[in-house]
Structure prediction request, 337 residues.
Amino acid sequence: MKTCGGQAILLAVLLLFAVSCSKSPGIYRKTKPLMDTLVTITVVAGSDKEADAAIEKAFSVIERFGDKIDFFKETSELAAINRNAGVNPVKVSPETLGVIERAIYISGISDGAFDPTIGPEIKMWDFYKKIRPSDDAIRHNLSLVNYRNIIVNRDRSTVFLRKKGMLMDLGGIAKGYAADLALANLRQSGIGAGIVAAAGDIRAFGLKPDRTPWNVGIKNPRQKSDVDDLMATARLSNKAVSTSGDYERYFIEDGRRYHHILDPKTGYPAGQCRSVTVISDDGIFADGFTTAVFVLGPEKGMKLVRDSGVDAVIIDKDGVIHTTPGIKKMVTFEDGH
Ligand code: ADP
Ligand code: MG
Prediction:
């Protein structure tokens, strides 16, 4: 009897093993509105259940981070920093501190083309309601925009905005970092491959079940129709790709396009590019660089990406495509560029 029971158990184990071996991994995907945008997570997993549990955990990590750096949410760490501008340093979580430190770093290497203290300017624009601030108001608030007036104390984990009225806005970097966080969390859940896409800030890792890289579409900044029209496709594994464009949030008035990437030196939308795509190892840098390069324009922007060892595709204001040499290996253009 004993032997028989042992054999039955052995048979059951063997059967279970056979079932788990025969189940080939599939691709699972879910989308959720988070951080004021749509986040889509795609994973390679053995079952719907496994995928769902991992994706939901990753969504909650993004949600928690988003709550800390939400410009409009009174209880966020960012709102506390802004409320205390010119008054007190504010203690923040190591995560928020780390993001702010990296935002300051990108500001420095881009000579202030990226500047998270753009808040007093950006808050006066409304790209949905087509509200454009007066020239006077834009000029007046420029004195409040300067990343050098962000004082970080790492030992105390505090952040202080030196001048009253300053406002920090991490919108130019936060989604890329959220993709980094979600990816790390998926890995912790045992997921070996997938894509996290926070709108245009995307991180791919591992390979598809057929052992090929992931394909990530890059939008044409001037859509020919309502259907997403792709300009190029990037083949990626273990890379971050971010795209910023003047077509995301904008309005047109008197033939001029006003959009959400502002030049911190003028307070007006940056005018030298239509879109910038950056491919790098981390989401936070890909995201920060797209905004910085967009403001710098094709010449200075290309220099910055080359010096920083990341790859980029820049569509300038006239529609001319500029690329780093590394792009050829990863990106195929629709027009054969
Ligand atoms: P998207 O949000 O479309 O992905 P970006 O990554 O370029 O595009 O971020 C744009 C956002 O960054 C704006 O909505 C604003 O919150 C902020 N921002 C605008 N101009 C700058 C700038 N020069 N430096 C840093 N942040 C900026
Ligand atoms: Mg950005």
